[in-house]
């Protein structure tokens, strides 16, 4: 597949160390990268995507758009239907459902407006067929199934038909399905993860039935283990880190990594700064002040903000981060190394969480994607192993989920 080569200067810092990459030129690293099907399992998009506000076929201020995907050899992305957690009542469900609809329509506008450049895939075979055609690939993931309310018997088949291929059980705060990795004590959530509810167990069954991967990122440890153990299909942790490398509640313990391995699933290691290493407290305080300035510290603040204000906020955050030591591609690779050591090379993958807070020095937008491949080569991973990490393992899990569907 023809792709635009990124500059040698962008890759060079990541192949200067020991290992295989030391013996490879920048062009050789790029050639290896371009032979690999690359899938990013978590990319957020604003609801104004593919409108007069944001044209994804141009180089935008977002971390992911079609030109950046081409420039960085990022072949496929799960674009995310995200909803913020609200109260467990009909008003909250209805508000979240409307937000989910807006984001879904944004994804579909992008695909419909650019049929010669990108296509929606709903199966592993379709991913490979679109890849072979030379087009980019869009997939759909759900971040927080909360918006389905209690009407999951109708909602799950609907979203399966629409093409959603993974669904996270929770997000921040516990919900009607189970415990979150980040419970909200001020909202009455207990400190200890309560585990799957009866409705949560039924949700796992329905997701299995309809060929949707159960996603345990953002899910509490007990709820995650219960979901893994009851799922008859492989599961995914779509964007997490390794807790043994950095102790953060959003990261996966070794027990969970082993459970994912035993289930046949995949754990995607995320390029999210605050999940990879300790953050300078000065930066944390400065970003908190910035969030207050932009009204993002209030419930629903991000949803109410405009694309322009979000872009301004992200630019200000980027300027702040330039003043402080930042997490790097190497920090993310440390998490990959640990996850591979615990779960095995067949059960680990790579994810950015771009435009949802993700990005590290060296991989701060889709155009810099080859730097991840360069770092893995530097650490001695083979091309075959890197192909598994970048997409092969996710496709295997998708096929397992498809086979388990009824």
From TrEMBL:
One of its GO terms (biological process) is proteolysis. InterPro entries: Metal_Hydrolase, Pept_M19. One of its GO terms (molecular function) is metallodipeptidase activity. It comes from the Bacteria. CDD domains: rDP_like. PANTHER family: DIPEPTIDASE, MICROSOMAL DIPEPTIDASE. This is Dipeptidase. It comes from Glycocaulis alkaliphilus. The lineage of its organism: Bacteria, Pseudomonadati, Pseudomonadota, Alphaproteobacteria, Maricaulales.
């Amino acid at each position: 597949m023809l792709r635009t080569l990124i500059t040698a200067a962008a890759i060079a810092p990541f192949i200067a160390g020991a290992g295989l990459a030391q013996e490879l030129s920048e062009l050789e690293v790029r050639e290896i990268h371009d032979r690999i099907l690359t899938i990013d399992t978590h990319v957020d998009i604003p609801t104004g995507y593919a409108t007069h506000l944001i044209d994804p076929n141009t180089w935008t201020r977002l971390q992911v758009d079609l030109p950046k995907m081409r420039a960085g050899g990022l072949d496929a992305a799960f674009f995310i239907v995200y909803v913020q957690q609200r109260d467990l009542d009909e008003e909250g469900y209805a508000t979240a459902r409307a937000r989910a609809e807006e984001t879904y329509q944004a994804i579909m506008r992008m695909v419909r407006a650019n049929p010669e450049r990108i296509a929606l895939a709903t199966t592993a075979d379709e991913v490979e067929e679109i890849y072979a055609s030379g087009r980019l690939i869009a997939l759909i993931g759900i971040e927080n199934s909360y918006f389905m309310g209690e009407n999951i018997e109708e909602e799950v088949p609907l979203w399966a038909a629409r093409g959603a291929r993974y669904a996270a059980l929770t997000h921040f705060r516990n919900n009607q399905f189970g415990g979150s990795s980040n419970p909200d004590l001020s909202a009455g959530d207990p400190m200890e993860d309560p585990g799957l509810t009866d409705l949560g167990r039924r949700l796992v069954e329905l997701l299995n039935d309809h060929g949707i991967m159960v996603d345990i990122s953002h899910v509490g440890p007990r709820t995650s283990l219960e979901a893994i153990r009851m799922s008859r299909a492989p599961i995914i942790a779509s964007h997490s880190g390794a807790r043994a490398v950095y102790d953060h509640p959003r990261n996966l313990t070794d027990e969970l990594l082993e459970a994912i391995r035993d289930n046949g699933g995949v754990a995607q290691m995320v390029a999210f700064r605050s999940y990879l290493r300790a953050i300078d407290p000065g930066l944390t305080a400065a970003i908190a002040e910035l969030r207050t300035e932009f009204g993002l510290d209030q419930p629903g603040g991000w949803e109410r903000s405009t694309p322009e204000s979000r872009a301004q906020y992200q630019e200000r955050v980027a300027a702040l981060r330039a003043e402080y030591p930042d997490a790097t591609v190497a920090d993310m690779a440390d998490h990959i190394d640990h996850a591979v050591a615990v779960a095995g090379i067949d059960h680990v993958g790579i994810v950015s969480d771009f435009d949802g807070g993700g990005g590290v020095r060296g991989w701060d937008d889709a155009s810099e994607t080859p730097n991840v491949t360069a770092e893995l080569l530097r650490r001695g991973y083979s091309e075959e192993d890197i192909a598994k990490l970048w997409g092969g393992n996710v496709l295997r899990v998708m096929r397992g989920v498809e086979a388990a569907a009824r």
